[in-house]
Amino acid sequence: MAFSLSYSTIGNYGSRSSMAAANRGSSDSSSNINDTFGQTIFGKNSKSRESGVARVATDLPLVARPPWKQVATERKLAAWTSVQQDRWEGELVVQGEIPQWLSGTYLRNGPGLWHIGDYHFRHLFDGYATLVRLHFDNGRLTMGHRQVESDAYKAARKNNKLCYREFSEVPKHDNFLEYIGDLANLFSGASLTDNANTGVVQLGDGRVVCLTETIKGSIVINPDNLETLGKFEYSDSLGTLVHSAHPIVTESEFLTLLPDLLNPGYLVVRMEPGSNERKVIGRVECRGGPSPGWVHSFPVTEHYVVVPEMPLRYCAQNLLRAEPTPLYKFEWHPESKGFMHVMCKASGKLVSFIKQHIYNGRVIGVIVDCCEHDANPAILDKLRLQNLRSWSGDDALPDARVGRFKIPLDGSPYGELVDALNPDEHGRGMDMCSINPAYLGKKYRYAYACGAQRPCNFPNTITKIDLEQKKAKNWYEEGSVPSEPFFVARPGAKKEDDGVVISMVSDKNGEGYALMLDTSTFEEIARAKFPYGLPYGLHGCWVPNR
Ligand SMILES: CC(=O)/C=C/C=C(C)/C=C/C1=C(C)CCCC1(C)C
Ligand SMILES: CC(/C=C/C=O)=C\C=C\C=O
Ligand SMILES: [Fe+2]
């Protein structure tokens, strides 16, 4: 470990080396928008299914309230409402024009079903995975959604109760023996969820895998019809239970971090296309705290993997608890400080002596941009469904920014953490970031993310951040919540921002639509209404046509 940073962070990262010289699936079925198939899930009718999602009553006449408060009290956003049925597929009516070149499938995964019978889950991250598919073909758009058939989801359906430990939910035990059995299963990982609800990636060999933070929750799906094909079984015997929710996936590799909860540290591992075997690149020992910091995501450059060690650390006691704490399975240890470990991808060595690790004599440091929640883990609890569903109209979203870590590779023990741009440019809200994937690990200028138009309780804009000009362009529609902006480059594009940004929006009427923005102007070019609003999804990937 080479650098200690005096700030801590929670969030997602983009990164690059700073070089001295760098200053230099189609679906055949096409049906009418009203056609549906599938089955109703967990409950007899929509009222009982959503009984925990009551509208917030207001004793004031609506006209007496400021417009955002009217929206807050009247709406029931589909984003926080369980998906209405197991699956649907059909062609959407497009308003505006989808470019003819946009051809392929955007897959998005996320928690989408938050109840079993009359039992309602507490946290956004607890929901059973709902996959959504937007298939673009010659200006036409087909949408499909389907539940991921994890063991956790199937067992809940079969037994009508929670059977595995989710992000915050823990199965209830009928007797002491069952409780002891569950504890034993916790250490073997058997009682942990495989609910793959965080993201979906396409490996270099074409396989499409849904992921969550438990390793057993890696599930292969068919991108054409969203069918669950089975578990992705890692053939190595690395033996840890959790990994980063955001592996780095390119045509040539799958890189991820495995926190070691027993002997505090992290394994940096790599898997080749066509293989199920992760090989260890190197190991990082923790510098502070009783356990590794949460590694939801991590940054890479062309030559380095950066292992963030956050003061928000996994906590064995909280894992054992039946009731969630405000920080769930984690614990906040500011006294343990935060660290950025920089590992050379080729050698697996930590970059601690600059003279040994200068690449072509030009690398002077690593720049890491991060959605940074002002060293405050409160955001985790803000994502409780009750908070999201019962917004009063007051400004409730904690501040976040693009934090830029400047990590020197000259042996200095301290780096710097600065604002990449004035956070007011994006309303001091910042998460769900992405960049043009062709710029992964290289010098990039633009990032796309969800920002805030305040007051709000959740990021409600789509923002294009120009890190060179330190400016942001923002898309906003009153009362709506857009999902992760996903960038698709125009074939043959020369400019970094030549392409389309796709998002799925939950609107104030409880409905939803797919939204396409021209990335360069950041103006809307098309939208297509869904048959009904869809739950908020987290992360996605682009699957080009075969
Ligand atoms: C959706 C999202 O961003 C994060 C999901 C995280 C999950 C489901 C984490 C689950 C966990 C367990 C079930 C036990 C072990 C700890 C931890 C990885 C937090
Ligand atoms: C939904 C979210 C943060 C919103 C805060 O502003 C983060 C989700 C990360 C999951 O992958
Ligand atoms: Fe994430």
From TrEMBL:
It comes from Mikania micrantha. GO terms for molecular function: carotenoid dioxygenase activity; metal ion binding. GO terms for biological process: carotene catabolic process. Transmembrane segments: none annotated. GO terms for cellular component: chloroplast. Coiled coil: none annotated. This is Carotenoid cleavage dioxygenase 8. Binds 1 Fe(2+) ion per subunit. The lineage of its organism: Eukaryota, Viridiplantae, Streptophyta, Embryophyta, Tracheophyta. It holds the Pfam family RPE65.
